[in-house]
Amino acid sequence: MTAGIDGAEASGAVRPQDDLYRFVNGAWLAEHEIPADKAIHGAFHALWDTAEQDVRAIVEKTVAAGHPAGSEPRKIADLYTSFMDTETIERLGAAPIADQLALVRSATDGSALAGVLGQLELQGVPGVFHYWVDADAKKSDENIVHLTQGGLSLPDESYYREDNFAELRTAFVAHVAKMLELAGAADPAGAAARVLELETRLASAHWDRVKDRDVQLTYNKLDRAGLEELTPGLEWKTWLAGAGVPESAFAQVVVREPDFLTAAAAALREIEPSRWQEWLTWRVVHSAAPLLSQAFVDENFAFYGKTLTGAPELRDRWKRAVGTVEQALGEALGKLYVAEHFPPDAKARMVDLVQNLVAAYRQRIEALDWMGPDTRQRALEKLGTFVPKIGYPDEWKDYSALEVAPDDLFGNVRRSVAVETERDLAKLGKPVDRNEWRMTPQTVNAYYNPRMNEIVFPAGILQPPFFDLVADDATNYGAIGAVIGHEIGHGFDDQGSRYDGDGNLNDWWTDDDRAAFEQRTDKLVAQYDLLEPAETPGQKVNGKLTLGENIGDLGGLSIAHVAYQLALNGAEDETIDGRTGSERFFAAWAHAWATKTRPEEAARRLTIDPHSPPEFRCNAVVKNIDEFHTTFSTTADDAMWLDPADRVRIW
C-alpha cells in the first residue's frame, strides 16, 4: 500500500494548524494554471479530464471498427461522426432550425402559442415551464409528472434584478441581438431588449434557490381541475397535444412553484403573441447554437463561456462531440467504459467501504446525545434500508428506438430528445424502476436519491485521487470514504431527513429532536455566511443555499474517520511517508478539493451552486471536527482553531 498523496503539491510555508487546504495543496495552487477551455480546474476536474479522454478513445475505436448498422456501437460512432462533420455543418448554416423558426411564426394567437410551446418542448427547446416524470414524494412506489419554473436564459432569477449583474444584463442583450441577426430575424436589437424585458417579468415570479430547496414547499399535488384553476387561460389541452403528452399524464401532477405557474399563465395571456414570437425565436437559436455553424458556436461561447464563466477558449470540438454522445447514448458508452476501466476488485473494495461507513453511522447515531429514543430508532431504521449502487447499473437502457445518421447532427439530437421524452412518459402507470440510474457509469460524481433512499457511486469517480486500489485505508477513507459518508449524510440533512426509509415525505421526528437538529444547522449556516472566497471580494457564501451540502460534508468526513478506525480493527495507526494514518486521512480530504477558479465562475457558483467553494469544503468542515484538532494538536493560537463550544457536530 502507498500513501496515495503527492507530497510535492504541498506547501512547506504553511502549517496544517493554520490552513489545512494550503498545507496540502499550496505548491499546486501556486503553480497550476487553469486550462484555457475551463473556468474551474482541480483534482476533481482532472479526473473528469481522464474520463473524457478514456471515453474519447472508446468512441474513436467504435468509429474505426465499422460496427453493423443499427447496433449501439454504430450509433455511438455515427453520432460522433455527425458532430465532427464540420463541412456539412458549415454548409447547412442555420438551415436545420428553419422548420422550428417557421413554427414560431405560426404562433399568432394564444391557442397557437400554447401548441407551439408544446411542440418545441418535444424538440428540446425549453419553454416557460418544464416537466419530468419521477417518483411521487408521498407515494414513492408510484410515478407522477412534476412541473417546475423555467423561461430564463441567465443562470438565476437574481441575475435579472441585482445591481452587481447589471453589466451582464447589458452583455446578454447584445448577445441575443447578435444571435438573432445570425438567424436573420427582424429588428434584432429591439427584439433582444424585449427578450430581456419578458424574461425579467418571468424572473420576478421565480422562487429563489433557497426557497426552492424546501421539499415540503415544493410538493403541491393537483388534479387536472386544480391545475387549470391555478393557471387560468393556459390551454393545457393544446400544449399537451403539441408536446406529445397524453391527457392521462396530467391527471395528477406535482407543481413545485405554484405561484410561478400562475404568473406564467398571466404572462402568456397578457403579453402579445409577437413578443412571444421574438422570445421563442431566441430560444430556438440559443438551444441549437452548439449544433450549428461556427458563427453560432463562437457567439454562443462568447457570452455563455467567456462572459459568464471567464473561460478564454472554446473546448476542442472532439470534447464537445463526446459530450453530445454522452448525453444521447450515455449508458451505451457506459457498457464499453466499464469493460475497460472498472475491474471487479474495485467494486468489491467499495462494498467493504460502504459497509464500514454504514456501520460508523449506526455507531454515531446510537451515541447521539441530542436525539431522543423514538427518533433515533427511526433514524436507524432508515439507515438500515439504504441501498448502495456501485459502478454501473444491473440493467442497461435500451437505445433501439434512436435513429442516428452520420450526416445529420441536429436531427440526431432532436430525435434523442424525443426518445428520452417517450422513455420518461412510459414510466407513468408503472411501478417505479429501482434499477434506474441517474448518472452514467463514466460520470465523475455521486448522488443520493431520497425517494429511493439510495446512494450511487459511478465507476468514473472510483479512481484516484478519490479511490485508489493501491493506496492505504487512511487515504481512501479520507477521500472516497468521505464521499460515501457525504451521500449517506444527504439522507439526514435538512431536507433529506424529511424522507423516511421508504422514500416518502413523512415527519418521523419528534418536535424536540427537530428543534435540536435545527439549532445545530442554524449554527452551521451562520459559520458559512461569514466565508468570503478570495476570487470574489465582498461576496460571501450563502449558508442557507449550501446547508444540505455542508451537512453532507461535515457528517461525511466525521463518519468516514470513525469508519477508518473501524477498518483498522485495533491495528496500529501506521506512519507512511512521515504521516500518521489520521494525518493522511485529512490530507486526502484536502487533496480531493484542490481547485482553482476564475473570478467570473466563482461569482456564478456563489449564486447558483448549493456546494460551498472547494477551499471551504476542506477548511470550514475540519474546523468543526474534534479528531482534526486532536490529530494536529491545534491550540487557540492557531488559525484553524475553533473553540469546542462553537464546533457543530450533527451526526
Written description of the protein model:
- The protein is α/β, with parallel strands linked by helices and 651 residues long.
- It folds into two domains: 287 residues, Collagenase (Catalytic Domain) (3-Layer(aba) Sandwich); 195 residues, Neutral endopeptidase , domain2 (Neutral endopeptidase, domain 2, Orthogonal Bundle).
- Helix content is 53%, strand content 7%.
- It contains 24 helices and nine strands.
- The strands form three sheets. Strands 2-3-5-4 form a four-stranded mixed sheet.
- Helix 5 runs antiparallel to helix 12.
- The protein is globular and about 75 Å long.
- It starts with 19 loop residues before the first helix and ends in a 19-residue tail after the last helix.
- The model has no long low-confidence stretch (mean pLDDT 96).
- Its cofactor is Zn(2+).
- GO terms for molecular function: metal ion binding; metalloendopeptidase activity.
- Pfam families: Peptidase_M13, Peptidase_M13_N.
